[in-house]
Amino acid sequence: MLNGCFTESLCEEIDLSENNISPSGMRAVNEFSISSSLNEVPTNLLLEILVFANKFCCERLKDACDRKLASQVSTREDAVELMEYALEENTPILAASCLQVFLRDLPDCLNDDRVVEIFLQANRQQRSIMVGSASFSLYSLLSEVAMHLDPRSDKAACFLEQLIEYAETDRQRLIALHQLGCVRFWRKEYEEAKHLFEAALNAGHVYSVAALARIGYSKGHKLWAYEKLSSVISTVAPLGWMHQERSLYCEGEKCWEDLEKATELDPTLTYPYMYRAASLMRSQNTQDALAEINRILRMFEGRVAASQLRTLVREHVDNWTAADCWLQLYDRWSSVDDIGSLSVIYQMLESDAAKGVLYFRQSLLLLRLNCPEAAMRSLQLARQHASSEHERLVYEGWILYDTGHCEEGLQKAEESIKIKRSFEAFFLKAYALADSSQDPSCSSTVVSLLEDALKCPSDRLRKGQALNNLGSVYVDCGKLDLAADCYINALKIRHTRAHQGLARVHFLRNDKTAAYDEMTKLIDKARNNASAYEKRSEYCDRELTKADLEMVTRLDPLRVYPYRYRAAVLMDSLKEKEAIAELSRAIAFKADLHLLHLRAAFHDHVGDVLGALRDCRAALSVEPNHQEMLELHSRINSHEPLI
Hints:
Structural class: mainly alpha
Keywords: Coiled coil, TPR repeat
Pathway: Protein modification; protein ubiquitination
Largest sheet: none
Organism: Carya illinoinensis
Radius of gyration: 33 Å
Number of helices: 37
Pfam families: TPR_10
Strand content: under 5%
InterPro entries: ETO1-like, SKP1/BTB/POZ_sf, TPR-like_helical_dom_sf, TPR_rpt
């Protein structure tokens, strides 16, 4: 413009005052044209230059301003101010930087009307600048957070209205319709909610029928609600939630039957257990009511906060002295009552007892209950409350071991032993060494370490575990007589789980009947005996095995081995459809890798390539690098027969 064929090139003076840029801004532009740098240019001047660069199509200058401004966004105030420029001047890097600040500030930033206004007033082009093609994902997140803050709020409704608009697929649209229907329902806008749920249901979102039934029930149409759910149950493959919902609209035996069916189809639904427990309690059937509560606690798998867990169990635990607590803990631990043991430890932690040891015991129980994250928190608390340096080193060693740093955990055990020879330090060293060494000769060292542990002071709970572990080492070495002695000695101090090890010894001596009888003793003594039934099933004929595994499923429906076994038996009997149905029964509530792998193989066997591919892809979503699944997926894709 200044030196080419434009009119301004012939002028002595050029008036740039109408371009909204100051002399300082022009000097910075001039400097950039020479050095390609915007160093030490203040924010207000950068904004001037950005507008100027955009107006005169100076792309390199605009990009430099975009990046420089993006690096300066640090607070919500910065983001609110600069997002306006980003959307107006089409600077995606600055817009993304502002958006990142908003997202990091969730959910608090949604209480700021300025931030909400930015999201609600953005047009299609501005959304593209801000988030590219991910509008649905962004507004799905925003609507979820808004509903969590207040599901009846205007902002939740507005975000969901936009979510429907931004849906790109039928699936996205039906989910958005259902969610907006929920918000309208909570706001008691029943007619609008009804239309949204009907639209979602017609688009294929079956769960919306539950909402329609509840709207009908709120208007006094209880029979209509029952029949609406019945029509869905009779036309599609029924799921647990369908029967749970239908139970709300009937009474007596019908209600009980629906809840039993709900538990059968999806044992992770908690309402049926709670309903049955309350009903049994009202009829003075206390033991069965508590049994239902115990089943709920298994389903939670550690997802209950300690305060909630205490609320559920404290009324069944008396206040004891410290000595009473240790006796009660020993009794519950010996009877394989992990929930009961946890409740005793929780009560002990409220007293002045040594907390390091108690948190450590708590972590062991949580691991048994398949709650690794909660167990790790307890281990960290054990470390924090350790009463001595050598005790702290042991807990640090377990933390390292449980996070995959076996060698470092071993070193911590050795450091602890140098300070003081203790049971827990030797036990940790033996455990870590057995896991880290591939050398068969190390078993003698592990035996020696466990023997050293047993010579140190400790209570019978831990010594029983050491004897049990020692027996396992002897079994692996083929020294069955020594193993049997260890298990028998463990049983003498009421380490009940040693029955399982002794059963293994009997089995390896080709005495299957004795093995079965030994597991029966464990079943009789153990409060939580689902795993014992599962193990006993290995030591009997097919009919008894089937009965044991049915009992496992009744006691703990989340254990997957029984489903796999029953499916394999059905497949051997050429009942392919029934075998696939058995696996599907478990997969409906637990996306287990082994179940998906097996069902993919079964689908492939009967020629259902699409079903096999679906299960392979689902499994690889759970574990992307699972070698067997990758090979199976490759074979199915290439239509090679499975052997």
